[in-house]
Design goal:
Layout: E1 3-6, E2 17-26, E3 29-35, E4 55-58, E5 60-62, H1 74-81, H2 86-91, H3 96-104, H4 108-123, E6 127-133, H5 140-156, E7 160-168, H6 179-196, E8 202-207, H7 214-227, E9 232-235, H8 243-249, E10 254-257, H9 263-272, E11 275-278, H10 280-285, H11 294-299, E12 304-306, H12 320-331, H13 335-341, H14 344-349, E13 366-369, H15 375-379, E14 386-391, E15 394-396
Parallel strand pairs: 1-4, 5-6, 6-7, 7-8, 8-9, 9-10, 10-11, 11-12
Antiparallel strand pairs: 1-2, 2-3, 4-13, 13-14, 14-15
Helix pairs in contact: 4-5, 5-6, 6-7, 8-9, 12-13
Bound molecules: 3-[(4S)-2,5-dioxoimidazolidin-4-yl]propanoic acid (DI6) and fe (iii) ion.
């Protein structure tokens, strides 16, 4: 193959790196990977492609996005620069509520049309799996429309889209001050309807003073459990509300943000097998100063994923390479942790066992980079060294 492979295998050298690697792909899956010198003779007659010294990695996975929404919040960005805080903007009816109004007014086609450029930006950086959340509808019809739009994105582009129901993202204006009534009267019924239509791969919520309490999220998680759906949670982003402990009790796939998480939270996550999804784009955008407790996650063996959290308010970011750089520079993650965070650990955060590493039997979702060493992917700022992306064994151009 004439290049090196960062397989992200858990055991062995850093990055699971194989310096002079060969890789065999058949029927969309990886058939063999190892040192080129050990390539079995059976592959001698196979069509070959020389990577000319490049690096091959698993294709990247963005495991936390709000990619589907209408409008933008550039004006809010400007207000924040004039001194308003994120919480003040949310309380003043800006924030999530303004995106909800724009999203309710948009058609499914419009949501797809505006999401595609964001998806294309991710794809251009070697991303082949993207999680997309609802949560800007907050009524039955719009939540379903958002999830249908998300599913359609996966038909329009060569990527896997996983959908997450985030009905408990914010309290809509018509339920102001009545969060629990919103959960009971709208959110749970919408979740059941979305699930009946096959639109839900996982269930999420936002546990925060400006959103839902842990006991309100518990109602949503109980419904998810009845339906047999996995859960994840936005927790301890702006303050400590106990969402992580709740999510761990429900064996969450992931707990996300976590700036205010404690050591007890890290231990609970380790015991539950939950991934910590680190979202430096939101930390950076809202100018948070408390960093998530990376050292505690490391100490207790909590796997860390990294994602863009692409959303119009707190993280208008469509670069997973930038998220890797921020994870390293802002949070002192290592470049190896950053790459695992957008490959193997991101797959785990989505409950996907068929991708995220280069190993026999896994999907041949791969990225080929014009770099010598995997640390370069985290090191450079605003530079995209992608040479080629491969989705299910097929080289893709966009
Ligand atoms: N936490 C966030 O950072 C985003 N959602 C959430 O639960 C913010 C979404 C927005 O401001 O539109
Ligand atoms: Fe988010």
């Amino acid at each position: 193959m004439g290049g090196s492979a960062a397989t992200m295998a858990l055991e062995g050298p850093a990055y699971g790196l194989i310096p002079e690697a060969a890789l065999a792909v058949e029927h969309g899956s990886i058939a063999w990977v190892g040192p080129e010198a050990e390539l079995p003779g059976a592959f001698d007659t196979w069509r070959r492609q020389d990577l000319e010294g490049r690096l091959i990695t698993p294709a990247l996975i963005d495991c936390h996005t709000h990619l589907v929404f209408a409008g933008d919040r550039a004006r809010e960005f400007e207000m924040r620069l004039n001194g308003a805080t994120y919480e003040e903007l949310a309380r003043a009816g800006g924030g999530i509520a303004s995106t909800v109004a724009a999203t309710r007014a948009a058609s499914e086609e419009e949501l797809i049309r505006t999401a595609l450029p964001r998806l294309d930006a991710l794809i251009a950086e070697g991303v082949s799996t993207v999680e997309v959340k609802s949560g800007y509808g907050l009524d039955r019809e719009t939540e379903l429309t958002m999830l249908r739009a998300a599913r359609r994105l996966g038909e329009l582009r060569p990527v896997t889209i996983t959908t997450t129901f985030l009905g408990a993202h914010a309290v809509p204006p018509e339920y102001e001050g009545r969060a629990e009534a919103y959960v009971n009267e709208v959110c749970l019924a919408t979740l059941r309807a979305a699930h009946a239509e096959g639109l839900v791969d996982a269930v999420d919520g936002f546990c925060e003073t400006i959103a839902f309490s842990a006991s309100q999220i518990d109602l949503v998680f109980q419904c998810a459990s009845e339906l047999g759906l996995p859960v994840k949670l936005h927790a301890e982003q702006l303050s400590h509300q106990g969402g992580t402990a709740l999510a761990a009790r429900h064996r969450a796939q992931s707990v996300d943000h976590l700036e205010y998480a404690t050591e007890a939270d890290a231990i609970a996550m380790a015991e539950a097998g939950s991934v910590a999804t680190i979202l430096p784009g939101a930390y950076y955008t809202i100018r948070e100063t408390q960093a998530p407790p990376i050292a505690l996650f490391r100490k207790h063996g909590v796997p860390m994923a990294l994602a863009t959290d692409c959303n119009p308010g707190s993280s208008p970011m469509t670069s997973l390479l930038m998220a890797m750089n921020m994870g390293c520079t802002l949070f002192r993650m290592t470049p190896e942790e950053a790459l695992a965070g957008v490959t193997s650990h991101a797959a785990r955060a989505l409950g996907l066992r068929d991708r995220g590493q280069i190993a026999p039997g896994l999907r041949a979702d791969l990225a080929v980079w014009d770099v010598q060493h995997p640390a370069e992917l985290s090191y450079r700022i605003g530079f995209n060294p992608l040479h080629m992306r491969i989705f299910g064994g097929q080289p893709c151009c966009n």
